[in-house]
Predict the 3D structure of the following.
Amino acid sequence: MRLSAFGQKFTARSGILALMDDLGRALTGSEKKYMLGGGNPARISEVAKLWREQMERILSEDDRFEQMVSNYDPPQGNPAFINALAELFRREYGWDIGPGNIAVTNGSQTSFFMLFNMLGGRQNDGSRRRILLPIVPEYIGYADQTLDAEDFVSAQPRIELIGEHRFKYRVDFAELQLGEDLAAICVSRPTNPTGNVLTDEEVYHLDEIAREHDVPLILDNAYGVPFPGMIFAPATPIWNENIILAMSLSKIGLPSVRTGIIVAREEIIAALCSCNAILSLANAGVGQQLVTPLIESGEILRISSEIVRPFYESKSARALQCIDDEFGDDLAYAVHLSEGSLFLWVWFRNISITTMELYERCKARNTIVVPGRYFFFGLEEDWPHRDQCIRINYGMPDEDVRRGIRVIAEEARKAVIP
Ligand SMILES: Cc1ncc(COP(=O)(O)O)c(C=O)c1O
């Protein structure tokens, strides 16, 4: 097979692809596994029941199911879904938007592919422009999406230590590379993998910088407010004409319906629709139809704040407690403040092995985590910190999380620098 440059880039064995394969293999076999590695949301029974009821309603109405599965929507998305969203955002947050400010995609992963490659990369005049990640570690799913790896540039954060065993990353505004080649600034809030939630002030400041450079700020709201609402720190839903807000139905319990939502100014939405028509023709419609009545009634906000948020917040607190109980004082560990998402990010400050090695040792004991180094792409310099961290998904049943954390503690303790 002779591959083009595009073919080679997108078929290369990216680190994360190799790791995901490895995880898949690790999960086969009959022994019990403690899967604290992937990004799957938890199944919350109350929410799962709601989606089932919505599907039953569709099935019970004459011709509704057939309409849902037998028609292509326009590339922008289902008009009823888009109108309901625009109305919700106008009503609840006073955003000055209409249907022309919203586009649907086949999952936000696809949104990012289109956005990064529409804005960054080679320009018509031959120059290149880059996407700035103002803080890494950042979502691994962005890493291989640009046509050229050089199309990302990122910045190390400032580390704020909080007590003996907690810390928080802050945007180091002095370190941002704001060259002529800036195409967009992009950040996830809450952040995968750390659970960090950028403060409103940090977001406004990034927006100001983006405006000064005449580029958009892409805010990845996959876990954020108003839905799915996996956010435990004060955070205002923020949007304006310079912000491209990326949302998703995945983390509210519907990852397989592949529905991403973009809120942006009209010219960006029009560009995305053109791109989406070429890539996908139309979007998956089932998720949009399941969720539209809950958006129209505003019920989605209640589900997010009264069911989803407390569910993850209490799971996070239990997982943190478990880490503090199991890790003890001989491990110089620090956990990033858990402000949202479904991950804990643990920093080992006194172990003699890399967290890639720690991952291998945990895997040999049927416990799967994700080693930190994959989340530090776009950095020009080496940073030892990236081999000192792991990501833990605490969405699994509590007992699995507890057992997995015990194995991590035992393996890390064996590697403590004497
Ligand atoms: C921060 C972040 N953004 C985007 C995505 C992609 O989500 P989806 O394509 O399912 O909408 C994920 C998935 O885990 C994520 O963690």
